[in-house]
């Protein structure tokens, strides 16, 4: 990302933050006194709960395989021979991802163009991050590097 793209991104982020602040101020009185029934409250909590999504991503990074135990319960089994990243790499990728997948982003009112730009920038950052830390992340064989 060059300086001009970075400046455009920061200007866009400032505009979004200002519009969110204005929107929050305008809606504060309404939401303060509104009565939400339990069903809609549960739906909101469900939509904002990102822990399941992050856990699924972690399981995918760890290459864990779903299996059934003797009691019919679903469990996830590690397959170390298929795992690309080591523990350090998995934790660093999850840390980077947590800056992009959070309640504040879900509650934001980004336009489609803004979302596309943010996702493009994230993908570029993730690629660079993994590439510059290959050895530290456990990508130490030609097959792992190719993958």
Runs in which pLDDT lies below 50 for 5 or more consecutive residues are: 26-34
Helix content: 55-70%
Q: Which structural category do the helix and sheet elements fall into?
A: mainly alpha
* Number of separate strands: 2
Main beta sheet: 2 strands, antiparallel
Shape: flat
Overall description:
By secondary structure, this protein is mainly alpha-helical. It has one domain (37-141). The chain is built from seven helices and two strands. Strands 1-2 form a two-stranded antiparallel sheet. α3 (51-62) runs antiparallel to α4 (87-98). The longest helix has 31 residues, at 3-33. Residues 26-34 have low confidence and may be disordered.
Characteristic terms for this protein:
147 residues, mainly alpha, two-stranded antiparallel sheet, 7 helices, 66% helix, 5% strand
How is this structure best summarized?
This protein has 147 residues and is mainly alpha-helical. Helix content is 66%, strand content 5%.
List the helices and strands and how they pair.
Blueprint: H1 3-33, H2 38-48, H3 51-62, E1 65-68, E2 74-77, H4 87-98, H5 103-107, H6 112-132, H7 142-146
Helix pairs in contact: 3-4
């Amino acid at each position: 990302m060059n300086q001009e793209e970075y400046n455009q991104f920061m200007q866009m982020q400032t505009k979004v933050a200002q519009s969110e602040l204005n929107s929050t101020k305008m809606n504060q009185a309404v939401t303060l006194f509104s009565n939400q029934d339990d069903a809609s409250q549960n739906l909101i909590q469900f939509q904002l709960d990102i822990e399941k999504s992050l856990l699924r991503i972690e399981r995918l990074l760890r290459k864990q395989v779903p299996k059934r135990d003797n009691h019919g319960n679903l469990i996830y089994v590690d397959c170390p021979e298929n795992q690309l990243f080591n523990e350090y790499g998995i934790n660093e990728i999850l840390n980077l991802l947590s800056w992009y997948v959070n309640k504040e982003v879900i509650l934001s009112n980004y336009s489609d163009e803004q979302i596309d730009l943010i996702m493009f920038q994230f993908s570029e950052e993730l690629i660079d991050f993994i590439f510059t830390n290959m050895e530290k992340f456990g990508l130490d064989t030609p097959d792992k590097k190719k993958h």
